[in-house]
Specification:
137 residues; alpha/beta
Length: 137
């Protein structure tokens, strides 16, 4: 115990017993070590296909396509990624509010698709629609 007995007189002991505090801290440390990895688990996601109804197609749609070999086409003509903004400006007459339909082969990685989308955004074309196949029911 924390007190000392001397000649039937009780004297006060001014020392703090820290053992219970250390025990509590160790238990809390173990709990957080076990709980922290469980809260940051990465879950692989297989995204489903969209079943939204198709929208009305404009008369003269402007397609930007990314092929499987990561080459970029504006309409049916190939264009370098660096010259995409100039080719879009020439095709649209500088109308930045024109909707651009972006389509990509399904083997194109997400990073390449985002690079093309960033080029479109940086050149001022903010109305970008992603093109996909209709879901077969």
């Amino acid at each position: 115990m924390a007190g000392r007995m001397e000649s039937d007189e009780l004297t006060e002991c001014h020392e703090i017993n820290v053992t219970p505090f250390i025990d509590v801290m160790l238990v809390l440390l173990i709990i957080f070590m076990v709980a922290a990895p469980l809260s940051t688990v990465d879950v692989p996601v297989d995204l489903p296909s969209a079943s939204a109804p198709p929208t009305k197609r404009p008369e003269d749609p402007l397609f930007v396509s990314v092929k499987a070999d990561t080459s970029v086409l504006l309409g049916n003509s190939p264009v370098e990624l660096a010259g995409l903004a100039a080719a879009l400006d020439e095709k649209t007459g500088g109308a930045k509010e024109t909707r651009v339909f972006l389509r990509a082969d399904k083997v194109v990685d997400y990073g390449t698709l985002m690079t093309v989308m960033n080029r479109l955004r940086d050149s001022g074309y903010l109305k970008v629609a992603l093109v996909g196949l209709e879901e077969v029911k």
